[in-house]
Structures are given as C-alpha cells and as structure tokens.
C-alpha cells in the first residue's frame, strides 16, 4: 500500500487584511491597519503549493471563507440590505466589523485536527474542525470549515467528519497547530502529540499570565476520544506558559514534527523531559530524532520573528527530509546560521527551501500555518475530491481566477465597500465550481 502526506494549503481569500485582531500574536498586533495585498498574498500561497507539487509532493487546496461575514453581522443585530449591514456595522462598531472581514481561514493549520486511518479505531481518517473560541474573528470559521472539509473529503467509507467541540473556552481548540503526528511511515500507526496551553477545569495548574492559552487539555482529550485514538497512541504535553507570554500563541510557532523527527526550541514545553520520554516510549524501539534548538543559538524572540519552527518538514520522494522555511529565516543571521548547521548534523533533514510568504507572516502565519496535513494511503487519496488537488492545470486555473477577482491593495476603508462583497461572492461562487465543492457558503444556501 502506498502512503502519502498531503498538504492542503488554505487559499488566501479576497479580503486578506491586517486588523490587529489577535491579542497574543505579536505580528498581528504590530501590523494592525497596514495596507494589504490580497492578490500578492494569494499568489505567494499558490507559488508555495506549486513548488511542493513540483518537488513530487501531493498537494491540495482548501477554499477560503466568505468575508465580510454578513450572516454573522445579521446575527449581531445589523439589518437591512447587505450594503446597509456593512455600513452600519462599520460605523457603529469598527471592531466587530473588522473581525467579520478577516480572511483568517487561510491558516488551515487551524482548520481542524486530523487523525490518519492507521491511528483510529474504525480505520477511517477523522476530522474535527477547530472551534477557535479564543478569538471572535476565528470563532466564525468552524461551520463553513466543516462544509469545505466534507466537500473535499467526500466519502464516508474513508473519511469521518465530526462537529467542532462546544463553542466555549473550556474546550478551546486550535486544531492541527497544536497537534503533531509522529510515525515511522505515514500508513503505520503513529503517536499523536497534543500540546495544550492550560487546564480548563483546574485553575491551580500553571498557565500563562499575560497572553491567552488558546488550547485546553480538555479539548485535546475530547478530540482524541472522538477520533478513537488508543491510549498508547497519544501523548499530551503542556506548552511552556512563559513562551505563550512571549508571543508563542500556538505550539507550531515553537515546534514542528514529521515522521521520526521532532524539531523544537529548548523552551517549548513544560515538564519537557517527562513528556519526551513518554513520546519515545510510545513511539517504539526505533529512536526518534529529537532536534532541540538551544536558546543560546536561537532566542525565543528570533524564533517568533522568523518562524523558524513554523516551517514545514516534508519527506521528499527520495526519502530525504527538507525544510520549507519563510525567507524571514534567511534574513536573520542567527537563524540562518542554525539552519545552515542543521543540514550537516546527520539528521534526516538534508536541505532548506526558502519561500516568500510575507503577506501571511505579517499576520503571524508562516508556511506551516498555511497547511493542513492529511496522511493517506492510495485508496483514501483516490477518494479525495480530485479538483482540490494541485497539478499544473489547476494551478494555472487558480492563478487566473485570482488575477480576475482579487484586488492589488486593500485598506480598511475598502472593506465597507459593498462592491467588495459582490466581488468576493462572485469569486467564491466561481471557485466552488473550479474545485467542485457544491454549495458550501451561506450566500449560496439562500
Ligand atoms: N500558527 C498558526 N497555525 N496559525 C497562525 C494563525 C494566525 C492568525 N492571525 C490572525 O488571525 C490575525 C488577523 C488580523 O490581525 O487581521 C491567528 O492569530 O489565529
């Protein structure tokens, strides 16, 4: 049986903008109100997808969400025509309005947690959309995310789709950004590492004091139960509360894994030794490559600034691993020095490829935020909606679609323009045809 890890990248939506919505995410706060380029952002994302496909990887795409979210604004009491809803929301409550315009669904690492069939009790691939309760603008995503996942993985024999966890901070769930699957190869049972920021029901346990811990232990445990994971196949570790307070709002800003490699900063985890020992024990006899980056080589601040750990580690068809890093890593002396050294250390990681994803980075999203990993065997891959897989033809079509519908620049005032809403809906309607998704958006469902 063949085995693959397919990266499903989020397509950047037509309202990509910088609104400073994510308290605890330093880049988001620092770039609030900067002018964005939705077209450039979407193209940077597409280029990364195409490059991975050209490397011989299977690459997929997930559709963005409808923004501005008129349905959410109506739910909050704004009424009248769509144009009137936009105008009154922008005038009466700038914060609510901006939150309902965010294209944040582009970071598909936060779309869902995915457990491959080799790990689950019923032998299907399981998906639970993340509820993203900690940020209002992101809490608007899970319903439509579920629709898009169901239309992309539309086969009940192979794929099980769960409802997102209850919309409450006790079950705050940020999806794959806090979940790493380690395995000897993708189609064999692995160990799923869930990383949480706090205990919801036990305030006596350590927790950050300045910035929020978005993920709870209780949410991780609920997802593991839903997916039918065995106790021997799961490890829970707590993120170091101090690094959350420094701006590490997801575990994937400080650690990343692939197959038998875990690459992490020495300050990433609370009770690190115990957790890593359990991980190695459950992983089995073959040794894990635990690549720990010391603070005196790369500070936490440099890791946050450059997203050294928000890189993708992928296994190329020849078996070597490569790192997909943002160009920001290349531009920082300490991080570049570390990466140059890393490829000489005799670990499975043999090379680094740099990509310009600055439009996403300015909102705190690196290469790894932009993708949702789905490990599959060949039968499962055959059951995926083929229009969502990237090849030369689909890449060309999507580029053309972006050229036709996306604006070059977008400033805050543009978001209240009713014409932007019409443009976005027209674009998304066409996209659902391109990707053969059916009606996944509220505006298509009447
Ligand atoms: N690390 C991972 N996996 N994902 C990155 C998500 C970035 C996103 N930024 C934002 O939502 C900012 C939007 C704004 O400020 O306009 C967030 O904080 O949830």
UniProtKB/TrEMBL annotation:
One of its GO terms (molecular function) is N-succinylarginine dihydrolase activity. The active site is at 174, 250, 369 (nucleophile). It comes from the Bacteria. Substrate binds at residues 19-28, 110, 137-138, 214, 252, 363. Pathway: Amino-acid degradation; L-arginine degradation via AST pathway; L-glutamate and succinate from L-arginine: step 2/5. Keywords: Arginine metabolism, Hydrolase. It catalyses: N(2)-succinyl-L-arginine + 2 H2O + 2 H(+) = N(2)-succinyl-L-ornithine + 2 NH4(+) + CO2. It holds the Pfam family AstB. Its EC number is 3.5.3.23. SUPFAM superfamilies: Pentein. It is an enzyme of class 3 (hydrolase). GO terms for biological process: L-arginine catabolic process to L-glutamate; L-arginine catabolic process to succinate. Homodimer. Catalyzes the hydrolysis of N(2)-succinylarginine into N(2)-succinylornithine, ammonia and CO(2). This is N-succinylarginine dihydrolase. It comes from Alteromonas stellipolaris.
């Amino acid at each position: 049986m063949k085995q693959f890890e397919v990266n499903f990248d989020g397509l950047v939506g037509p309202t990509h903008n910088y609104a400073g919505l994510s308290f605890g995410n330093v880049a988001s706060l620092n770039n609030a109100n900067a002018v964005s380029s939705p077209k450039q952002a979407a193209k940077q994302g597409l280029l990364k997808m195409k490059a991975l496909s050209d490397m011989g990887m299977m690459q997929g795409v997930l559709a963005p969400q409808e923004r501005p979210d008129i349905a959410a604004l109506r739910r909050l009491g704004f009424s009248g025509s769509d144009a009137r809803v936009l105008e009154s929301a922008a005038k009466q409550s700038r914060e609510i309005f901006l939150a309902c315009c965010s294209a944040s669904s582009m970071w598909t690492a936060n779309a869902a947690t995915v457990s491959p069939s080799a790990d689950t009790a019923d032998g299907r691939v399981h998906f639970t959309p993340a509820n993203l309760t900690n940020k209002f603008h992101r809490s608007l995503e899970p319903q439509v995310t579920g629709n898009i996942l169901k239309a992309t993985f539309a086969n009940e024999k192979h794929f099980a789709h769960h409802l997102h966890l209850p919309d409450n901070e006790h079950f705050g769930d940020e999806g794959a950004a806090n979940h790493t699957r380690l395995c000897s190869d993708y189609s064999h049972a692995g160990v799923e590492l869930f990383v949480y920021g706090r205990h919801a029901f036990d305030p006596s346990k350590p927790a950050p004091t300045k910035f929020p811990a978005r993920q709870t232990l209780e949410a991780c445990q609920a997802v593991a139960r839903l997916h039918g994971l065995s106790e021997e196949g799961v490890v829970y570790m707590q993120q170091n509360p101090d690094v959350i307070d420094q701006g590490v709002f997801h575990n994937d800003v400080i650690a990343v894994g692939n197959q038998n490699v875990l690459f992490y900063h020495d300050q990433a985890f609370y009770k690190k030794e115990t957790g890593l020992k359990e991980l190695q024990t459950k992983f089995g006899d073959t040794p894990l490559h635990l690549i720990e980056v010391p603070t005196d080589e790369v500070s936490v601040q440099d890791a946050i600034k450059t997203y050294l750990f928000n890189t993708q580690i992928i296994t190329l068809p020849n078996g070597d691993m490569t790192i997909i890093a943002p160009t920001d890593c290349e531009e920082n002396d300490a991080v570049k020095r570390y990466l140059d050294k890393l490829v000489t250390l005799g670990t499975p990681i043999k090379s680094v490829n740099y990509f310009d994803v600055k439009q996403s980075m300015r909102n705190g999203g690196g290469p790894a935020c932009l993708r949702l990993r789905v490990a599959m065997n060949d039968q499962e891959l055959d059951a995926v909606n083929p229009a969502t897989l990237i090849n030369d033809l689909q890449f060309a079509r999507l580029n053309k679609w972006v050229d036709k519908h996306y604006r070059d620049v977008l400033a805050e005032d543009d978001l209240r323009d009713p014409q932007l809403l019409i443009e976005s809906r027209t674009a998304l309607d066409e996209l659902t045809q391109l990707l053969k998704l059916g009606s996944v958006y509220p505006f298509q469902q009447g």
